[in-house]
Write a structure and sequence with these properties.
DNA-binding, 10 strands, 223 residues, three-stranded antiparallel beta sheet, homodimer, 23% helix, Arc Repressor Mutant, subunit A, 2 domains, Nucleoside Triphosphate Pyrophosphohydrolase, alpha+beta
Chain lengths: 223, 223
DNA sequence: CCAAAAGTGTTGAGGCTACACCCATGG
DNA sequence: CCATGGGTGTAGCCTCAACACTTTTGG
């Protein structure tokens, strides 16, 4: 390639993560308040520019850490936004990811680059910086697909979960009620989770068996 | 973001497409021979640098056209490669796609930037420029998933197909034999294709009914 | 012993696999 | 009329949706 062709210059890469949680039957997204221009004082998804000495995954981890204090957030690809004017100061292509974490993980409220950081219900997460409304919307749709084919929800339950808990989470994300008996059979059949030998008393009634997500999910062939 | 931070500078984006076809029971990929450094005279996948006045999709279409003379190749996302030293002259992040076209579409053998362009069986498509071996391998795996959930194969059959033809194509891509009766039922049930009222005599025997891919595929909910 | 939530089984319908025979055409 | 490949039906099994009762615990 002609390295000096001006058409190649001044393109940057944003790595952006929609970090979700599910809290008491409500799905929420983690947003930060921007301290600097552009979009100063606007809320935005977590992310930032890719440095030239790191991979996309490293950049995403660094950005998540810088902006929230969180480490080890597992990320899943969502989509790409390359509209030319999506960022005002410089052409930026956004590579977008999805993460899910337990709301109990502590999050820094203030960092060098952000003045606040908080969970928002999706209905409240509007008018974000850049094109983050659109990116968040895509991520939310892709999350629905991810939960039936991956262990993306693993981080929500650091010490395992009972099936009724998991079912509520699925119902929240999928926005529909599910039959208890059929949910059990289907989720086990999907091969995403496994039993443990622990039980937990949830709300002081009959103890429920605890499950956990498998670490590796094998794909099923349809042909 | 700090536009002048040197860590953000000099990153480029490669858009790369593994263009496949299936020809007489063999899957092939379209490669070009590079005219210029780096990797002069090496074979490579179709692609090149994103310009700062075009979206990713526009860049991909432009590159495919520049390097092969092909227009309207529909592309499907495959993966991203962001290893820091994957390109020698400049840091380049590769955004990789998959395309499928009919082998009968004519392809330019020589363009400004390439000295040759040809179809290769996958076993022969080795030692490519850059990290294209790895990218091609990913694309080939992702193609297997695409054919059961999208109309990616539509372009292989510009005037429709008979079910035996389609079955051979699936068998080639999936590398397994399929039962004729069950393939029929399953592929129709997937909702990817529809009947037409045409028939075709294929190899001079009983005429077979022709089908075509739907233009829009609706997704099925599993919960 | 009662309230609350967990856990489980069955039935009928539809889908899947595995398999063998008839049909339409060209030569 | 025969060779070639296209098209179809079925039996047995499995899976799925829909549905109601029993179990365990805390209070």
């Amino acid at each position: 390639m002609q390295v000096n062709n001006p058409l190649y210059k001044n393109i940057g890469i944003h790595v952006i993560c929609s970090i979700f949680t599910v809290d008491k039957g409500v799905i929420k997204v983690l947003l930060i308040k921007r301290k600097n221009e552009p979009y100063k004082d606007k809320w935005s998804l977590i992310g930032g520019g890719l440095y030239n000495n790191e991979t996309i995954e490293e950049a995403m981890n660094r950005e998540i850490y810088e902006k929230t204090g969180l480490k080890d957030v597992k990320i899943y690809f969502s989509n790409i936004e390359s509209t030319i004017d999506r960022s005002p100061l410089k052409r930026m292509v956004a590579i977008n990811f999805i993460g899910v974490i337990d709301i109990k993980r502590s999050i820094l409220k203030d960092t060098e680059k952000t003045s606040n950081c908080d969970w928002f219900e999706l209905g409240m997460a509007k008018c974000l910086a850049y094109d983050h409304d659109k990116i968040l919307n895509e991520a939310r749709n892709n999350l629905k697909k991810l939960i039936i084919s991956s262990n993306v929800l693993k981080e929500l339950f650091p010490s395992g979960f009972t099936l009724p808990e998991l079912q509520k989470t699925y119902e929240t994300i999928l926005e529909k009620k599910l039959d208890r008996r059929n949910f059990r059979k289907k989720i086990i059949n999907l091969g995403l989770i496994k039993e443990t030998n622990k039980t937990e008393v949830f709300e002081g009634k009959k103890p429920a068996k605890k499950y956990e997500f498998k670490n590796v999910i094998e794909e099923k062939d349809i042909f």
